[in-house]
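Sat 14:20. Reprocessing the chain from the morning session after the first attempt stalled halfway. Input below, unchanged.
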Amino acid sequence: MDRAELVSRSQAAASADTADRPGGLQTTELTHYLQQMIEIRLFEDEVQQLFTKNLVRGSTHLCSGQEAVAVGACAPLRE
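Finished this time. Tokens:
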């Protein structure tokens, strides 16, 4: 999935019907979480590309497909 498709899906989610959201979350909260997950995925994809070009020293441990874990774990935290 490329960046344009991810952004398109994010915009579609933001404009979807707001009735009966899971966990009582508002559309803005859900959209924010989705945007965070997209940002993580795009960052990791870029790290992987740099690594395959030998522009990142050492090794990488990517967690593509696990973005929701990081976003969900950090969601209740406050500054």
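The radius of gyration is 15 Å.
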